[in-house]
Write a structure and sequence with these properties.
Radius of gyration: 32 Å
Helix content: 10-25%
Oligomer: single chain
Number of strands: 26
Strand content: 35-45%
Distance between the termini: 30 Å
Mean pLDDT: 78
Low-confidence stretches: 1-23
Shape: flat
Strand order of the largest sheet: 4-5-6-11-8-7
Structural class: alpha+beta
Length: about 375
């Protein structure tokens, strides 16, 4: 039983993450950002060349059309027949343009295969313009791909693969060609948006800003995610940039909803520190049914014409564990629950079933989320 408990402790991951922070609090910039300064998602269509025969096959028609159009623009005319190029793959290039990225600065892009290419390893992306949701081209990408893996095939007999090689990344492969314009810093009033909306957190942030800055009414929570800042009350001796820098480094206490997240596929359980359990009695017992085959040898009668035969002899073995009962007090925390369930010697799947049963009994005061 001790070995089972040790394996259970290793397999079952119960993480107690304290969501209510200490009196010191956390910085505003870690959980919120200035409204209107969001990243811009970019995308583009291009070609990856230099593949070792792992590119798109003839079934991918748009790859051939792209090659023909590209060569035609470069003054190369091709005959009217299907070209067979296995070293080229059609890809989609995606990236995110962060606010205040100036023209000429670089950022990373991700390159993903669109056709039936088996690997992008060793390929190079040809100059590709990438555009935003408004259709404007904001950057261009080009450079060698880093896949972080390999895909080796030997005439279909041996196949060794590591990681996902149909997607690659080009660190610093995109150059900003057009700056994205933000108008949120032109006015006197600013607003800060919480990444995880919560009424208590928004009010706590506004109160902390007013208290630490020493000006009443400077910050006001308008909804569960937004705190408005009145620059007129900040005083004329502070610039807008200095004011934002001071506010984003202020600390406050964050409140969050108690949640228990369960991944049934991996047996992982993550519970917040605010989760509480009322007094409840938990008993667990399992029945294991195993069908085994105990072959039986039958010998023929002496001096007969028969021969020795092996006859299957299936047998059923039923093993039932002794059920144990554990009583959890009303002040039980996640750590106490983990220790109690480990003492029962249960498996991760059994822990998930027990948590679901406690939730149905009304003793688990948290949202139960199953992935």
């Amino acid at each position: 039983m001790n070995s089972i408990n040790k394996l259970t402790r290793i397999a079952t991951v119960v993480i107690s993450a304290a969501v209510l922070v200490s009196a010191q609090g956390i910085r505003i910039k870690d959980v919120a950002s200035v409204s209107g300064l969001e990243d811009v998602q970019l995308f583009g269509y291009g070609l990856v060349v230099g593949l070792a025969g792992t590119g798109d096959r003839n079934q991918t028609v748009f790859t051939e059309q792209t090659i023909v159009n590209m060569l035609k623009n470069m003054g190369v005319e091709l005959p009217e027949r299907h070209i067979r190029v296995r070293n080229v793959a059609a890809v989609m290039v995606t990236g995110q343009l962060a606010p205040f990225k100036r023209k000429g600065t670089k950022f990373d892009v991700t390159v993903s295969s669109m056709g039936d290419a088996t690997s992008l390893e060793g390929g190079t992306l040809i100059l590709t313009p990438i555009q935003g949701p408004d259709g404007q081209v904001y950057a261009s990408a080009q450079g060698p791909l880093a896949t972080g893996g390999y895909d080796l095939r030997d005439r279909g007999l041996t196949h060794i693969k590591k990681n996902h090689v149909s997607v690659g990344r080009i660190p610093g492969g995109a150059i900003v060609q057009r700056e994205y314009q933000f108008n949120v810093l032109n006015g006197e009033n600013l607003s800060i948006s919480l990444h995880s909306p919560d009424f208590s957190s928004a009010v706590s942030m506004a109160q902390s800003i007013n208290a630490q800055y020493g000006v009443a009414g400077l910050a006001k929570a308008t909804d569960a995610a937004t705190v408005e800042l009145d620059m007129a009350r900040a005083g004329g001796g502070v610039s807008q940039m200095e004011f934002i820098a001071m506010v984003e480094n202020m600390t406050f206490e964050v409140a969050s909803t108690a949640k228990v997240v369960i991944n049934e596929r991996t047996g992982t359980i993550v519970a917040g520190g605010t989760v509480r359990i009322s007094q409840v009695a938990v008993t667990h017992g399992g029945v294991k049914v195993e069908v085994v085959n105990l072959p039986e040898v039958i010998q023929p009668v002496p001096f007969a014409l028969g021969r020795t035969e092996v006859v299957p002899n299936p047998a059923m073995v039923v093993e039932e564990k002794d059920a144990e009962m554990v009583v959890l007090d009303s002040t039980t925390t996640v750590s106490d629950l983990a220790q109690a369930l480990n003492s029962l010697g249960v498996t991760p799947r059994d822990v998930i079933a027990i948590l679901q049963a406690i939730k149905e009994a009304g003793a688990l005061h948290a949202n139960l989320i199953i992935l």
